[in-house]
Amino acid sequence: MTLSTVALTGNVLLPNGTSFTDGKLTFTLTATDTEGVQVLPVAPLVVQLTGTAIPDGILLWRNSAGGLDTSYRVDMSASFDRGAGMRVNRTWTLGYIQLGAAGSYDIGTLLAASLPPPPEPAPAYVTAWSRGFLSSTDAAAARSTMGLPIVTPDQFGANTVPGTTDMTAAILAAAAYVSGLGGGVVHGFGQTYAVSATMDVSTYKNVTYEGLRLSAIGSWAADLPIFKLFYGDYNHVVNVKFRDCHFEGNRKASGISIENSAKVSVLNCTSHGVPAYAVRTRTASTELLIDGCNFRQWDYNESGWAIEANRSAVLIDIQTPDNVVSNTVTAYCLKPIAILGWGSYHNLVSNSHFYNDGYTPAAGQAICMDLAAPGCSFSNIYVDNGILQIDGLYTLGGAGTSFSGVILYKGTGTNTNAVVFTNSGGSPSDLSALSLDGVIYEGFTDANAVAFSGSFAATLAYLGGIQSGGGTVPSNFPYRPFAGGSLQASNFILHDAADPTKKAAFGVSSIPTGTTRTFFWPNTGGNVCVDAFSNTISATWTFSAKPTISADNADLGTSTNTGTINLASGASLSGRTKTVNIGTGGAAGSTTTISIGPAAGTGTIAVGSGVTAFTIPDAAFTLQDQADASKQARFEAASIATATTRTYTLPDASGAILIDSLPVKCPVYTVAGLPSAASNSYTRAFVSDSSVALAGNSGSVVVGGGANKVPVWSDGASWRIG
Question: Are 372 and 420 in contact (CB under 8 A)?
């Protein structure tokens, strides 16, 4: 069939008569229109002007012949001179025109009688629905601006009493119809459709279910869904969307069950009264997108909502990988969301609110998020009146699961914990790759904000990012950064369990760029020593490296109790040499004073028997009287020949040292009091009671009993006069 067309002529001028270049007129229908069975979409027709004139041979469709009373919007774009060498490109709307039965029209005449702008047109698929297209030709003609054919369940069955008349078969027939065309929309336009059994739409690909208000009637098993997508093979791509739909389970039916199916989207949908779930995935389903939804098993304060036995639904129940949940609210159920099982990895949940107020479980804790999800990301989430329960993640060490920007609010509920770590797997669970960062809890005490149930390995998670609204961290919370990773020093702050205002932080600014220092904790408890503080070390410290004390004043061994202080007391191995230096760092002109022994009381200085040399400069070795320190004596070695060592052997007797410049004073005995001649050979003395005088008796053995004072000497056998 040939379209009705009409010629368009005329000129377009600027009001001030100035010239323009590169002028174009664009004619766009205000809505999709039809002539007979032919469809004219909303698509622009661009006409390049010749100067200011519409070129010959320009034909437009005679839109007055259409069935929908459309008009053309006329836009112009051009480049024109603004003066000072400046040219400006502009686009503006000239008006709205409609072409009638004449053979040709002048553009100026049409614009002079310009129509007012049309009201916002209804979607093309609404028009198509109202015209009741059913044949394949008409269905193709009814494609909307999205390029999809639109049908309603009413075209396949009369919805006599909305919400009561069973429309299950009609909805399935509509889905089969558009799927057979390669894809399309089953649209309810907000009508309520009663369904009496699960609608298995597994084989209907590329179908969008939009604007359907579905209400379960009759008898259902609690876990049966209103919609079911199930394939026997793995990860079957179905490309199915649910948009702006409502699922009313009426305590009978659940929402959508997806198994072995990929690319399913649930967009801006709501649910209520579903006993088991709103959306559930099983087996190998992937690429599920839930966005902008609001799922509830019960409404706030609805009759029966506060009874624990009535809280049965896990509204978002995911046990498969690679799915996305965003901008979604779930509430008043058993669990608003659960992502569980070995296959539930690589899921992304963000910008959502999970709420579970209104009842007190027998176990004492309502659950908002139940997770055993390795390799998942949870961000910008508000958990309200329910705990965040994290299972042992099948001993996968958290497997890279992370939480950030999560708020855990206690609200009016009875929960005592914000986060509960459980381990249903039995063996110790290592959560070292689990990250909680930027997690805030409100209304819980620091001591109870986190709880552990089950067996966990010694290495736990990166958990430093969880804190109360006031900035404190749970007192029982383990802390460890990512293995092989790093943590900004300013983010690592310890606080006192009893007084959270007492805090300690670490700084690493003094470490050189590109350098990592390793500090090892000893296998004991104790106090940390600080260089700018007076430290008391009460335990034994052993330095295996060279310690340096650089302070101007330092004390070693200040205790007033009985004790032993050792310096270089370690036994040197055979063949090794140990040097102990005391006060050896003096420079020219300096003075070093080394004091040994107590200033009061008594002291003992002992030199070990293994010491073979004890060398002191003669000027540094001074003896002083113990009673009068001003009385001193010193030895001088200057008269000894160079490189010579003289040895002085002390006799086995006490006495005075003989001085060459002074008279020699010998001891005076009685003959009977002389020491043994045998042990004092060649020793000289004096006796005061010799029987004979010195004169004439030299060499005679001295005999006592007289009053003569004579010198005597020992020949090793007797004392003789002389």
Answer: no
Contacts for 656-664: CB closer than 8 Å, 24+ residues apart: none
Contact in structure between 35 and 131 (CB atoms under 8 Å)? no
What confidence tens digit (pLDDT) does each residue in 17-64 have?
656 778 899 999 888 778 877 777 778 889 998 888 899 888 888 888
Show Cβ contacts of residue 563 under 8 Å, excluding neighbours closer than 6 positions: 557
Token pair 């650089």 in the structure block, residue:
550
CA 671 to chain centre: 102
Cβ proximity of 193 and 227 under 8 Å: no
98, 63 in Cβ contact below 8 A? yes
Q: What percent of the chain has pLDDT over 70?
A: 82
DSSP 82-139: EETTEEEEEEEEEEEE---SSSEEEHHHHHHTPBPPPPPPPPHHHHHHHHT--SHHHH
Tokens encoding 239: 């490309």
Q: Residue 394 — very low, low, confident or very high, per pLDDT cuts 50/70/90?
A: very low
Q: What's residue 656's pLDDT?
A: 72
CB 451 within 8 A of CB 417: yes
How many other C-beta atoms can be found within 10 angstroms of the C-beta atom of residue 108?
Answer: 13
Task: Based on the fold, state whether residues 108 and 148 are members of the same structural domain.
Answer: no
Amino acid at 300: Y
Are 129 and 265 found together in one domain? yes
Identify the weakest region by mean pLDDT among 257-266, 568-577, 643-652.
Answer: 568-577
Q: Which of 460, 490, 506 is the last residue of a domain?
A: 506
| pLDDT, tens digit (0-9, with 9 covering 90-100), for 235-277 | 577 899 999 999 999 999 999 999 988 899 999 999 999 999 9
Residue 640 DSSP label? S
- 281 and 391 share a domain? no
- Residue at a domain's end among 455, 483, 506: 506
Tokens of 415: 């929960």
Q: Which among 482, 477, 485, 392 has a CA at the least distance from the CA of 439?
A: 477
pLDDT value of residue 289: 95
Instruction: Give the single-character DSSP code of 649.
Output: P
Residue 616: inside a domain, yes or no? no
- State whether 88 and 155 are in the same domain: no
Q: Which residues pair with 461 in a beta bridge?
A: none
Report CA 52 to chain centroid distance, whole Å.
Answer: 65
**Nearby residues of 170 by Cβ (< 8 Å), 6 or more positions away:** 153, 154, 156, 157, 159, 193
Distance CA 483, CA 459 (A): 10
Find the mean pLDDT for residues 122-149: 40
Determine the structural domain holding residue 688 and report its residue range.
668-721
State the average pLDDT over residues 68-89.
74
Identify whether 544 is part of a domain: no
Domain match, 287 and 141 both: yes
Residues 6+ apart with CB under 8 A from 532: none
Q: Measured on CA atoms in the order 621, 627, 630, 632, is the torsion positive or negative? A: negative
What kind and span of H or E run contains 261?
Answer: strand 261-267
Mean pLDDT within 654-679:
82
Measured distance CA(712)–CA(722) in Å, rounded: 5
Assigned token pair, 505: 């932080």
Selected residue with higher pLDDT from 268 and 629? 268
Is the same domain home to 195 and 246? Answer: yes
- Which tokens in the block code for residue 488? 């900004």
Q: Work out the number of other CB atoms within 10 angstroms of the CB of residue 292.
A: 16
Provide the greatest CA pair distance for the chain.
185
Task: Please give the residue that has the higher pLDDT: either 241 or 530.
Answer: 241
pLDDT of residue 485: 43
